[in-house]
Amino acid sequence: MTDSQAQTALSALRIDRSAAPMRRRRKRRWLIPAALLLVVLGLIGVSLARRPPTVRVAEVREPLPGEQQTELSASGYVDSRRRSVIAPLIAGRLVEVAVEEGEPVRRDQVIARLDDRDARVVLERANAEVQAAGARLAASEAQALNADRTTERTRNLARQGAVPRAQLLDVETAGRATRESLNLARAQLAVARRAREAARLQLTHTVVRAPFDGTVSRKLADEGAVLAPAALSGTNLGGIVELVDLHALEIEAEVSEEQLTRIRTGQPALIFLDALPERAFPGQVATVRPAIDRSKATATVRVRFQAVPQGALPDMGAKVSFLRQPLPPEELNARAQPKRVPASAVVRDAQGSAVWVVKDGRLARQPVRVGERVGDEVSLVQGPGAGTQVVVAPEPRRLRDGRRVKVEAGGG
């Protein structure tokens, strides 16, 4: 082996130390991003651990009277069996409105007056026509009496031959004409009297009276308004006031057509007024309107109060529960019945039964005493008040007193 070949072999066995720093630099470039990634993941984990859990909530509620007897429910409005827009029977200018909104009125009480000057002129003319017709009748009666006497005298003379037959025929013809004039005068007097009656009626129509006992719910016109003799829906052409009988109130509820078979006349019902939510009022089905609203596929059911409650007014919102059988009076008070919560909201552990209450976004464990189960709910003999939010299907391992939580969208 020559010296040059030996040096080549030794060079091949020598370690190249210039490559080591290059590899160390590559490792350092990957270690920094990896460390940053671990820090970010750690921060995300801490953030998730501290993030308030999302819970689904329900409210403690007071049971509605008759829930167990309810066949179906419907919404509607208070209406009255007697409700009318009062308008004059003739056109005219309004000179007085004698009532105000909210004022009770009796039947035949004066509500308003129209300008009656034209009507009085017409009546005075009608009176004059009657007087003239009466005078004409008196003259015709006198003429007829004289014609009868002349005819009788001429007939006697004709029997004696003192007057010719032709003269007798002329006198009889004149007598018949006089009697026809008398009949015409009588007819003219009857026509004049009828015209006077019409003028008097026209004058009475200038005074608008209440057709029934009721309360003025709306005032539709004031003095000076020129009114037409009728009112059309949506456009007031002649309405002066709207009159409502508050003693004949009932509920108009809409029931879908597929549910109509479950409704019958005389069926017991409970009425809940939005304005008086703390009370339930017994009633019964009065009528089912025999027509379907095509656009909504519903029928109107009228439900009457057994006794119209004080404070009920037309157009108030209402809900109706149609019952299978009448409800005893003692069950009408919802506040006398235990409050209810979903059965899944109650947890049982070594400390007893409890619910997790959500208040101001934080949890609180509250002990409860549970009564009977009703469907998916349980009654609370002792526990939080109505309207309190409680967690549904809670996970005690994730929940603790004072922990901040987020209420699920749409929950509670």
UniProtKB/TrEMBL annotation:
Residues annotated as domain CusB-like beta-barrel: 251-322
Domain (YknX-like C-terminal permuted SH3-like): residue spans on this chain: 340-407
One cellular component (GO) term of this entry: efflux pump complex
GO molecular function, one term: efflux transmembrane transporter activity
InterPro entries given in the database record: Beta-barrel_RND_2 (IPR058792), RND_pump_MFP (IPR006143), YknX-like_C (IPR058637)
NCBIfam families per UniProt: RND_mfp (TIGR01730)
Family listed: Belongs to the membrane fusion protein (MFP) (TC 8.A.1) family.
Protein's recorded name: Efflux RND transporter periplasmic adaptor subunit
Classification of source organism: Bacteria, Pseudomonadati, Myxococcota, Myxococcia, Myxococcales
